[in-house]
Amino acid sequence: MKALVDKATCISCGLCPEVCPDVFDMDDDGKAVAAVNEVPKASQDSAKEAAEGCPVSAITVE
């Protein structure tokens, strides 16, 4: 499973690293990024929760 962040859509709200810090981080430009290539099995539910909670739907978890 991979997590992707559309940085052009991201509004830097910080929700995703708050919900799933094992997968998401804030980049130097203030936008969210997926900090791992593969979502760890233990973090899959929280990664999906972060994607569902993103206010601008900038996150895709597949």
From TrEMBL:
- For whether the record's keyword set contains 4Fe-4S, the answer is no
A GO MF term: iron ion binding
Q: Which PROSITE patterns match?
A: 4FE4S_FER_2 (PS51379)
Does the UniProt entry include the keyword Lipid biosynthesis? no
Keywords recorded for this protein, A-Z: Electron transport, Iron, Iron-sulfur, Metal-binding, Transport
- Which Pfam families has this protein been placed in? Fer4_13
Name the domain of life: Bacteria
Residues of the 4Fe-4S ferredoxin-type domain: 1-29
Q: Which PANTHER family match?
A: FERREDOXIN (PTHR36923:SF3)
Biological function: Ferredoxins are iron-sulfur proteins that transfer electrons in a wide variety of metabolic reactions.
Q: What is this protein called?
A: Ferredoxin
